[in-house]
Amino acid sequence: MVKTVTEYVCQGCGHRAPKWLGKCPECDAWNTLVEERVKEIGSNRKVRGNTGTDHASVQPVTGVEALPQNRLITGIGEFDRTLGGGLVEGSLVLIGGDPGIGKSTLLLQSMGRMAQSGGRVLYVSGEESPAQIKLRAERLGALSDNLLICSETCIEDVLRIVDRVEPRVLVLDSVQTFFTADLQSVPGSIGQVREVAFKIFQDIKKRSMPALLIGHITKDGAIAGPKSLEHIVDTVIYFEGEKGHSYRILRTIKNRFGSTPEIGVFEMLPEGLAEVENPSDIFLAERPTDSPGSVIVSSMEGTRPLLVEVQALVSSSSSIGMPRRMAAGFDQNRMSLLIAIMEKRLGLNLQGEDIFVNVAGGLKVSEPAVDMGVAAAIAGSFRNQAIDRHTVLIGEVGLTGEVRSVMQLEARLAEVERLGFKRCVVPQSVQRDKLLKKQGSMNLVLVKTLSDAFDAVF
User: Rounded to whole angstroms, how far apart are CA atoms 124 and 131?
Assistant: First the structure.
């Protein structure tokens, strides 16, 4: 006999309690516990393991038949690159981003192209009516008889529609608006998001059908709902972009079928998202000439090397004892670490200076290979000396001021040479790399410390 019980679930962290509490004991948030209904199987259930039989199949890993990864091409090359080559059959993809960043535009545009190529797509929206979806599809040029749209929020009804139309791809916009009849809590709650995602996961694995979910994000930038949502899905992608910039970055955070962190670059236009096939050219297009504090660095985003401009501004602080330190597109703690290294190892007096660092184009760079370039930009602005515009700096900076080697240097140098740069400052340890014998006409400057790098560029 089935017995129905209730429990209280925190909508902030997912903590479960048998009774209502004013304050969550896990995250210390007030008035976040909401009552949810939970079904439990009665005492007459059969417990696996007590019957003396085990139906689980156990076999050596070498004897398991490989699963073919048939990928579906979405029609947008940058999207396919981010997914690892296309949609894998039976995969569950979660896309998050700020409101208005272009999540729905990206999926409707890509699914429209897939539908125009012959694949049947079911686009289910819990936020927009079919008339609103058609208006956007007309603007994006995504009209097709194979693109089926509906407005529904009950996940059981959605799965019945899937049974009837048998689409090749399923899109849910967005997962926080759907609910399951098994729970009494409101849509968007921790329990609803978890159960809806799990029901979709079970259904698409059985059908070998890929599904894409759009997820809302919190004010902290994380996808709303339980953290287990990101563990359930196969791929997690964030759509990034700065207000005032037309460029959008599609960044893979998790991918069971491809490399991470892969990125795709788009430009937002009135007729939709346009692919940017050579992002380095775009990020360097408006670079100023002979300007102190401007440096070109090389960053690896997945398998793609990108050349970006790092800008720094150092000025005398107007507040005594509390200079301002701000960074856009770069980790501020890492910037403070580089400033401390330059003060201690190079004797630069930066204590009373306001320091600002910006990565041009709205791109966010996090890998340590850009350390030497960021330090050189700060030093160039402080000394009011410009660095040769045909020079690129690549290298990680250690706490003792040494310059360390970086990964995938050959791919970075190939991109540097392709864009016509004449000189590249790299760590001295690359002398042991035989691949650097093919650097062509580009001049490689090998440095051992940050002081050597500054002597080479100033």
Answer: 13
202 vs 225: CA distance, rounded Å: 19
Asked if 338 contacts 382 with a C-beta cutoff of 8 angstroms, the reply is: no
Is residue 77 over pLDDT 70? Answer: yes
SS3 202: helix
Alpha-carbon gap, residue 5 to 37, rounded angstroms: 6
pLDDT tens digits, one per residue of 420-437: 899 999 999 876 555 555
Residue 318 CB burial class (10 angstroms; 0-12, 13-18, ≥19): exposed
In sequence order, which residues have a C-beta less than 8 Å from that of residue 328 and are 6 or more positions away?
357, 358, 359
Token pair in block for residue 253: 């955070």
Q: Give per-residue pLDDT as tens, 307-344.
A: 999 999 999 987 777 899 999 999 999 999 999 999 99
In angstroms, the CA 10 to CA 191 distance is 9
**What pLDDT, on the 0 to 100 scale, is given for residue 394?**
96
CA atoms in the 13 A half-sphere facing the CB of 44: 3
**What is the pTM for the complete model shown?**
0.78
What integer best gives the mean pLDDT of the chain? 87
**Burial of 99 per CB tally in 10 Å (0-12, 13-18, 19+):** exposed
pLDDT digits (tens, 9 = 90+) for 204-229: 999 999 999 999 888 777 787 777 78
Q: Which residue matches tokens 């009011």?
A: 384
**Cβ atoms of residues 300 and 409 within 8 Å:** no
Encode 205-252 in three state secondary structure.
HHHCCCEEEEECECCCCCECCCCHHHHHCCEEEEEECCCCCCEEEEEE
| Cα separation, 178 vs 192, whole angstroms | 8
Q: How many CA atoms lie within 13 A of 341 on its CB side?
A: 24
Residue 326 vs residues 61, 313, 338, 356, 359: alpha-carbon distances, Å:
51, 10, 13, 5, 12
Instruction: Please name the residue that has the structure tokens 């968007």.
Output: 188
Measure Cα distances from 154 to 151, 177, 279 in Å.
10, 9, 41
3-class SS of residue 288 = coil
* CA distances, 79 to each of 91, 93, 157 (Å): 15, 12, 29
Would you mind telling me the total number of residues written for the chain in this entry? 458
CA-closest candidate to residue 416, choices 434, 396, 440: 440
Angle of CA points 258, 261, 266, to nearest 5° = 100
What domains are defined for the chain? 1-44 (no CATH), 71-277 (3.40.50.300), 281-457 (3.30.230.10)
CA–CA separation, 410 vs 377, rounded Å? 24
